[in-house]
Design goal:
The complex is a heterodimer of chains A (184) and B (109). Helix content of chain A is 42%, strand content 25%. With 184 residues, chain A is α+β, with helices and mostly antiparallel strands. Chain A has a 6-stranded mixed sheet with strand order 3-4-2-1-5-6. With 109 residues, chain B is an alpha/beta fold. Chain B has a single domain (3-108), classed as Udp-n-acetylmuramoylalanyl-d-glutamate--2,6- Diaminopimelate Ligase, Chain: A, domain 1 (3-Layer(aba) Sandwich). Chain B has 5 helices and 5 strands. Chain B has a 5-stranded mixed sheet, with helices on both faces. Chain B is globular. Chain B starts with a helix and ends with a helix. Classes of the chains: A alpha+beta (184), B alpha/beta (109).
């Protein structure tokens, strides 16, 4: 993909499909290393499925719902010398914690590093598309941190849905302001 | 023009050709797989320098007639056997993507 933010969108959509109630998106930038973590509390995957999401054929041929998302993200990080790790714990019905965590590392000084791109639009698109799921977004940069937690917004907004136009607009401006404050 | 016919006309060699009768109806050049996925057309000869298993996956999704690896790029054995199993033709040429497209233009039009 042309922007990492599109990969983030794609992976987080998988979390939504796995019936997650909370999706945590963390981006850490330190020196020449960018770490992207997408963690959900969805249904998780069995060992067998976990192997299949890395293989583009298993996914494109038999379970189209997963798609090439993971293989392309894996390729994007490996092209910079980084790596992709996925940990998952399947929901066994016992009430034990379950979900999937995707950790991708990138060396940002490699020529083939894909720029992060418009990550604000990704966050907005996710919230708009899944107003009932909670998102915790955190981007640590050299100059500070950009955060957004829909659980906090929900506590303030009470019954107002997150996909209300004014709320979305506020989130968008708030994120843009946070980035601007850091870049100053 | 079939893929097999193509290998006899332009300067390239077949790394694997499980479907020699596939009809080449056009050409597409691209290395960004997600981009190619939405833009290459069925029957295209797809010229690229990307040679991993995802390239083969995108070829099956788009239904291109063959992958042409430019600049002398080749496939490792594992990817080659995947291509063979999935019925994806893979050719290799020492030409640049540009020169390969120019050669194809002479053949396809």
């Amino acid at each position: 993909m042309k922007e990492l933010s599109l990969n983030i969108l794609d992976i987080a959509e998988n979390s939504a499909k796995a019936r997650a109630s909370l999706i945590e998106i963390t981006i850490k930038e330190a020196a020449n290393l960018l770490t992207l973590i997408i963690k959900d509390d969805g249904t998780g995957m069995s060992e067998k499925t976990l192997c299949s999401v890395i293989d583009p054929f298993y996914t494109t041929r038999t379970t189209r719902k997963v798609g090439l998302g993971i293989p392309l993200l894996k390729m994007a990080c490996e092209m910079t010398g980084g790596k992709l790790e996925i940990k998952s714990r399947e929901d066994d019905g016992s009430g034990a914690p379950h979900g999937t965590t995707v950790v991708a590392t990138f060396y940002t000084d490699h020529l083939d590093f894909t720029p992060l791109g418009d990550v604000i639009s990704t966050v907005i698109t996710l919230i708009q598309g899944h107003p009932d799921i909670d998102f915790a977004y955190k981007h640590s940069l050299k100059g500070g941190e950009v955060t957004l937690d829909t659980r906090e917004l929900r506590a303030v907004l009470e019954d107002i849905p997150l996909d209300t136009y004014d709320v979305i607009l506020w989130i968008k401006e708030n994120l843009a302001d946070q980035y601007e404050a850091i870049n100053k | 023009m079939t893929v097999e016919g193509l290998t006899k006309i332009i300067d390239c060699s077949a790394l694997t050709m499980p479907d020699p009768e596939a009809e080449v109806t056009g050409a597409y050049i691209g290395d960004l797989l997600s981009w190619v996925m939405g833009r290459a057309s069925e029957g295209d000869a797809w010229i690229t320098i990307m040679s991993n298993v995802n390239t083969v996956a995108v070829a099956t999704l788009t239904g291109v007639s063959c992958i042409i690896l430019a600049e002398g790029v080749t496939l490792d054995d594992e990817v080659l056997s995947t291509a063979k199993n999935k019925g994806v033709n893979v050719l290799s040429t020492v030409m640049s993507a540009y020169d390969c497209a120019v050669a194809l233009n002479g053949v396809l039009r």
